[in-house]
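Protocol step 4 of 5: obtain the predicted structure for the target chain.
Materials: sequence only (see below). No template structures provided, no constraints applied. The aim of this step is simply to have a reference model before the mutagenesis design in step 5. Sequence pasted as it appears in the construct record:
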Amino acid sequence: MLLHGWALHGGLFAPLVPALARRHRVHVVDLPGHGHSPAVAPFTLDAIVARLDERFAREAPLTVLGWSLGGTVALRWARQSPARVARLVLVGATPRFVAAADWAHAMAPVTLARFADELAVAYRLTLQRFLTLQVQGSDAGRATLAALRSALFARGQPAPAALAAALDLLVATDLRTEVAAIAAPALVVTGSRDTLTPPGAGAWLAQALPVARHVEIEGAAHVPFLSHRRRFDAALDGFLDAR
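Step 4 output (structure tokens):
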């Protein structure tokens, strides 16, 4: 199962699907309020997990690949439904998106607050700027940004209210106390130049999860599965093939 990040949709994973589908049954999901999926109310992490749990009640065990916001959803789902989530692939993921006195591996609170303010007055421009941040510093940034821009509204425009609620979720969520209780084996993939979820967040996750390996892709930013496909695929295949 492939879970995408904030403001995007499952179509972003299209380049990964053909190779995965040759060996696995693949579910590409639009998270609530994104793409073709209706929002949940209230828009909480538990409500998102409950919808996934209900929709895929007959699909177990699952390997869940969560990117960015999708990684947050995957972590909570694995914590709540260990019988359903057998393995995790966490890409550009973090237990906490906002920096704090005891958490340096994140964006400054003012950065996310600015996105929330700007969404209300310059919706499309704010989303475009967010895409630019995702590739900032990547040595394949221009091509990756073009792919993100092409995909952004391919499944319609997400409702501003849903995006604002999802952004509030990112600001409020801190999963650091939950991670040690997640039994599912995990692959944690980070980009060495990621400014949204810095590689230190991935290193922390890999150390805190009971069974995990960490792969840092040199030169990648927040979207290594698009910008550095060969290295990403090698890490993913090695994890999926492991016994």
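Step 4 remarks: The domain at 2-241 is CATH 3.40.50.1820 (Rossmann fold). The chain has a mean pLDDT of 94.
Proceed to step 5.
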